[in-house]
Write a structure and sequence with these properties.
With 475 residues, this protein is an alpha/beta fold. It has helices at residues 17-43, 95-109, 140-149, 161-164, 182-196, 213-228, 271-281, 334-348, 378-386, 396-406, 428-454, 458-461; strands at residues 11-14, 55-63, 82-87, 113-121, 174-176, 206-210, 234-238, 251-256, 262-266, 288-297, 307-316, 359-367, 389-393, 410-418. The protein has 2 domains: 11-189, amp nucleosidase, domain 1 (2-Layer Sandwich), CATH 3.30.1730; 197-466, Rossmann fold (3-Layer(aba) Sandwich), CATH 3.40.50. The protein has 12 helices and 14 strands.
Length: 475
């Protein structure tokens, strides 16, 4: 009887990040190619004598001692001596990211890197980066053997315990090198394609979230203009693939050759959608994400069309309560705040000292009940007043909180579209006129803010505020 394939536990040592990346790409390519070949044979009706298995590559680094003076950055160094490991998927897709992380660790610690195969199986679904629905390729007669011969996705390998800080690694023989396991990343890569209608390779490092089609239309026009301009640095514009069923949360990508372009995602309405999308985008390790949307103005002095720059959040959204307790403060990040302020000043043509005429900085509350006005208003109004909230929406706190949780720089810039507490409701005629006047300028501010963030050195943009105790070296 044939012996089932098991991973080779031998490792290779590499002095350079480039050599380590090449080894990871070779290992991953060999494992997934063999898996796909075995599946193709199975789909043709051939009998497989043993289960078809492939294993994720493993990347390890051993640090003998910590730095006497840790660098003023959030990534690329180990805050304790010892061994750090992670499983790796799609090293082709993450090549630039992996090289950045490994080069920083090499520069800070002068250590070698080890590569080999882990004992974590690659689910057959994840061996197909394009998201092939493998069961559809198998005859009904062979379907019963499918689960016996191929590894299935296992949710136990995809949890966010590293991200949530639910494990104390002090004294552990091996600590995680990165926030996510390889299966967790693969799961999100496939979910992104399902929800957005675009592939992970099209996503850019700067992400805008919105929940209005008006912004999509404006972004499409802006992107086409930028791509047509050879001096803009943008090389292509990618939209969701056309089909009978449009994606639930479509993504649009204004691309650059260095992946530092801008992705816009229409997440729809509500904190659940906001969490779903940010849960998955986070595995791509974007440089920053920002919410562009509308809010209810809560102050009498606000006017329709005024900007609201969030510097704090009241989290009445509830979708992250199990992952990030509501007592955790979500701080404003100076780098993102400054970029948003600068973009408003530049696009609106308002001097910095006059920004208060068109923009108010303060607390934004996010709520999970869109029709909160239809209940007794005394209790929520009291909480809004006690928190000093100036705006109310349904997504911003979720996106900011998940940015904090996933160590992704975040920000929120909203526009006042109604003032329900003061008799100005969002009615069809009023809303349509408001959208026509305001959306293009608001979108231009968001795009310009991302361009300002892109100009910052990565060590400055990635804030140490987002590091936890016993933080992983990769960010």
């Amino acid at each position: 009887m044939a012996i089932p394939y098991l991973p080779m536990m031998s490792t290779e040592s590499h002095e350079s990040p480039e050599a380590a990346l090449a080894a990871l790409q070779r290992l991953y390519g060999d494992e997934t190619t063999r898996l796909r070949d075995r599946f193709a044979a199975f789909a043709r009706g051939e009998q497989l004598e043993t289960p078809a298995r492939g294993f994720y590559p493993r990347l390890s680094v051993t640090v003998e001692r910590t730095l006497p003076h840790p660098p003023a950055q959030s990534f690329g160094f180990c805050d304790a001596a010892g061994r750090f490991e992670t499983t790796v998927t799609r090293p082709d897709l993450f090549a630039r990211y992996l090289l950045t992380q490994l080069r920083e660790i090499s520069a800070n610690h002068g250590c070698a890197f080890e590569t080999g195969l882990s004992d974590m199986p690659i689910p057959i679904h994840f061996a197909f980066p394009t998201g092939l629905h493998v069961e559809g390729e198998v005859s009904f007669e062979n379907l019963a053997d499918f689960g016996r011969l191929f590894d299935m996705p296992d949710l136990a390998t995809m949890d966010d315990t590293h991200v949530n800080g639910e494990i104390d690694y002090l004294g552990a023989a091996v600590r995680p090198l990165s926030l996510f396991t390889a299966p967790r990343i693969d799961y999100s890569l496939h979910r992104l394609q399902h929800y957005t209608g675009t592939g992970a390779e099209d996503f850019q490092n700067f992400v805008l979230y919105t929940n209005y089609q008006f912004y999509v239309d404006g972004f499409r026009r802006l992107a086409q203009e930028r791509v047509a301009d050879p001096s803009s640095g943008y090389t292509a514009f990618v939209e969701p693939r056309a089909g009978a069923h449009p994606p639930q949360m479509p993504a649009y990508h204004l691309k650059r050759a260095d992946d530092n372009g801008i992705t816009l995602i229409n997440i729809g309405v509500g904190p659940s959608n906001a969490k779903t999308m940010t849960d998955h985008v986070a595995v791509l390790r974007p440089s920053a994400w920002v919410m562009l949307g509308h809010c209810a103005g809560l102050r009498r002095t606000q006017r329709l069309g005024d900007y609201v720059l969030a510097h704090g959040y009241v989290r009445d959204d509830h979708v992250l309560d199990a992952d990030l307790p509501v007592w955790v403060p979500i701080p404003a990040l100076a780098e993102v705040q400054q970029a948003l302020e600068g973009a408003v000043s530049e696009v609106a043509g308002v001097a910095a000292e006059e920004l208060k005429r068109v923009m108010r900085t303060g607390t934004v509350a996010s709520i999970d009940n869109r029709n909160w006005e239809l209940r007794d208003q005394s209790e929520p109004i009291r909480r809004f007043s006690q928190s000093r909230a100036i705006g109310l929406d349904m997504e911003s706190a979720t996106i900011a909180a998940n940015g904090f949780r996933f160590r992704v720089p975040y920000g929120t810039l909203l526009v006042v579209s109604d003032r329900p507490m003061h008799g100005e409701l969002k009615l069809p005629g009023m809303a349509s006129e408001f959208y026509r006047r305001q959306v293009d300028r608001h979108l231009a501010v968001g795009v310009r803010a991302m361009e300002l963030l892109r100009q910052m050195p990565s060590h400055r943009l990635h804030s140490r505020k987002l590091r936890s105790f016993n933080e992983v070296p990769f960010q």
